Design the sequence.
């Protein structure tokens, strides 16, 4: 599915992309894993305290295969559209740095007309880029968009019950499908730190949504 | 160029909101105190989490939730619009057997006070923070009175009416019980955030 994909060049203070014609067009957006090295340390779950049989979770945990160091966190997506204007919308970076254990970067997705479509939260990630926006590319073939968001944050100690660098990448609403990855099984068991292994971020999407506009 | 006050945006044009996002981006992120609430993101406003003895890894999610309910820390269901659905159970942080912070995310389908596509929603209740730690420009922050309590409110980047709302709203205050409540909606007008906050202060 990556044939024809092109990495979108992204800019700060981005210009308005090309205008589209008036007829409705379809859009399909997939969000991909955002860790620098895509080691899945916890399959689909809600909070880090979910019981092993929980099934409702909309989040995956990403880390390094060898833990112990911070890593970069990225927005990654692929999008397809029937719109010749070749963009799906914009992602705007937000950040909440207050409280305990809650360094949260997020990306809020709006379509080309300004309708909110989805949020993705990158919990345990810190960024100085809040307020920046980027264009989410799309075409009749999948277009890949990558945008640097920030760094994984260490949040051990205090009231936090997790340690080590990882990013809890979660739907903040708007996503219709969970894709590709297993449900969590062992990640809440003491001293067991793995649910899976290394995945190719661009091969396996994790969240999907579609709309017409 | 962002349209001036006398020239409302033509929201039928693709990308009409981009000049507003660009204008917001060029403003410094504000960090300060409004009505006693730390707002914005800074080292000073976001102290290191205090040391906590007696961590509680062994408690199950159900046990944590029960403690949170007993201690009045969970988001108030009646505060939520009928179109809100939780994305997970509340995330409960504890220090010993005391619940110190709870956070929960929701998806909100469109209402009269949200973007016409709906909005994401986060509610945080805390005993260890009085920081509405969201990064935004100063011109979007203001003081307000919510349910008789001094509050800090964040307006969205642009509200052009008819669901053309772009950017987060937020509202935060400390209740009589001492619990700090912080509400963030990623695509809604301030009245939406203030209404949810109000229900947590009563």
Sequence:
């Amino acid at each position: 599915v990556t044939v024809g994909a092109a990495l979108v060049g992204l800019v700060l203070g981005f210009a308005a992309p090309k205008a589209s014609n008036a007829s409705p067009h379809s859009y399909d957006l997939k969000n991909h894993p955002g860790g620098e090295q895509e080691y899945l340390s916890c399959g689909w779950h809600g909070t880090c305290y979910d019981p092993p049989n929980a099934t409702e979770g909309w989040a995956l945990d990403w880390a390094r295969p060898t833990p112990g160091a911070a890593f970069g966190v990225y927005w990654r997506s692929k999008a397809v559209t029937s719109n010749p204007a070749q963009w799906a919308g914009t992602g705007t970076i937000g950040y909440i740095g207050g409280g305990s254990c809650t360094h949260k970067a997020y990306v809020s997705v709006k379509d080309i007309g300004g309708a909110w479509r989805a949020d993705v939260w990158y919990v345990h990630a810190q960024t100085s880029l809040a307020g920046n926006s980027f264009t989410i590319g799309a075409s009749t073939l999948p277009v890949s968009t990558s945008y640097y968001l920030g760094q994984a944050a260490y949040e051990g100690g205090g009231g936090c019950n997790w340690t080590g660098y990882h990013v809890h990448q979660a739907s903040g609403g708007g996503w219709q499908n969970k894709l590709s990855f297993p449900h969590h099984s062992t990640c809440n068991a003491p001293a067991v730190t793995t649910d899976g292994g290394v995945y190719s971020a661009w091969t396996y999407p994790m969240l999907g949504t579609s709309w017409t506009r | 160029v962002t349209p001036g006050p006398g020239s409302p945006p033509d929201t039928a044009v693709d990308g009409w909101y981009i000049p507003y996002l660009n204008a917001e981006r060029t403003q410094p992120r504000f960090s300060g105190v409004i009505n006693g609430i730390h707002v914005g993101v800074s080292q000073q406003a976001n102290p290191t989490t205090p040391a906590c003895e007696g961590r509680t890894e062994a408690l199950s999610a159900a046990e944590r939730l029960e403690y949170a309910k007993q201690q009045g820390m969970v988001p108030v269901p009646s505060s939520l619009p009928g179109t809100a659905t939780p994305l997970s159970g509340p995330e409960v942080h504890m220090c010993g057997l005391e619940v110190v912070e709870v956070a929960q995310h929701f998806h909100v389908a469109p209402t009269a006070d949200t973007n016409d596509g709906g909005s994401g929603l986060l509610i945080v209740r805390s005993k260890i923070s009085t920081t509405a730690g969201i990064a935004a420009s100063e011109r979007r922050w203001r003081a307000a009175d919510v349910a008789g309590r001094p509050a800090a409110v964040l307006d969205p980047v642009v509200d052009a009416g008819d669901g053309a709302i772009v950017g987060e709203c937020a509202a935060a205050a400390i209740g009589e019980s001492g619990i700090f409540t912080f509400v963030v909606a990623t695509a809604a007008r301030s009245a939406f955030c203030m209404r949810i906050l109000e229900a947590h202060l009563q």
Observations:
- The radius of gyration of chain A is 17 Å.
- DSSP finds no helices and 13 strands in chain A.
- Chain A touches chain B through 59 residues (CB under 8 Å).
